[in-house]
Amino acid sequence: MNQDETLRETRKGVFFALSAYTFWGVAPVYFKALDTVPAYEILSHRIIWSSVLLFLVVLLFGYGKRLIGALSSPKTLLYLTLSAIFIGVNWFVFIWSVGQERMLEASLGYFINPLVNVFLGMLFLQERLRKNQYIAVSLAFIAVLIQLISFGSLPWIALVLAFSFGCYGLIRKKVKVDAITGLLLETLVLLPIAFIYLFFFAHSASANFSSNTLNLNLLLLSAGAITTIPLLFFAGAATRLKLSTLGFFQYIGPSLMFMLAVVVYHEPLTIQTLVTFGFIWAALVVFSWDGLQQHKNSKKRQLDLAQ
């Protein structure tokens, strides 16, 4: 691949990354439109219609062999069952928090997530933290303490979202399967639970498709697209950009959520909450600076070896 082709692919990767994280950042608007539907019900629809759409995508992209290969591996299925539990918890808590007008806490969770990933890597992958990473994690810990002292309770929504997604990513690192095929299998694991809830336990006014408005039914059917479209963008970005480059786009999502919560939905932003976010943002500045320095040092070492 020549330099011009490489540049074009990089530009495509940047476009796909911006699209994926922007999509995730404005997703609360969709879930707000469903605020009359119980969270468990929305989650069930998300699982059902995501599995349908992902199955079509797998067929369209010719991933059938990958799907069969994953299904024939008990170890892969075990890992994906565990990751399905974590992503199911993450989806539910996020949907619930948006419906309960606690989007600020949800955005805090996704701001914390990169730091949680570093912490989990230290605990389970024996990864050693660099000095700046220790500082970043410490600042995040202080932010949680401030929330605990100010409000007398842990910011559980933020912590559950951050750790469930962090554990999800940790497990997926162990599985040699692409993002789309993996998510299809995860939704298939959750599919029986979604069907059982929707057809036997859901008794809300929206549980019966035949009595819903066309607009509501279309919104519920769109749950699959809300899950799959940003994933396809992300997959396109991941194949074209370095992981270190892709990591700097991850703050777009929670930043957009934060602005939606404050500007559009007028969630209260107290001094204590702002101080908490301030410590998290400071931690992310240190974390990002450390990543940039490591990237520069790595490129310098590569140049020295090439000479």
Descriptive report:
This protein has helices spanning 3-32, 39-60, 64-71, 74-99, 103-124, 131-151, 156-172, 179-201, 214-221, 223-238, 243-247, 252-264, 271-306. It has 307 residues and is an all-alpha fold. The protein has one domain (3-306).
What are the key terms here?
80% helix, 307 residues, mainly alpha
Q: What is the tally of beta strands?
A: 0
Order of helices and strands: HHHHHHHHHHHHH
Distance, first to last CA: 22 Å
Shape: globular
Query: Into which percentage range does the β-strand content fall?
Result: under 5%
Average pLDDT taken over every residue: 88
Number of helix segments? 13
- Biggest pleated-sheet summary: none
Helicity level = over 70%
The domain count comes to 1
SS class: mainly alpha
Report the radius of gyration as a whole number of Å: 20 Å
Low-confidence stretches: none
Oligomer: single chain
Summarize the structure.
The protein has 307 residues and is mainly α. The protein is 80% helix and 0% strand.
SSE inventory with pairings:
Layout (H helix, E strand, L loop, with lengths): L2 H30 L6 H22 L3 H8 L2 H26 L3 H22 L6 H21 L4 H17 L6 H23 L12 H8 L1 H16 L4 H5 L4 H13 L6 H36 L1
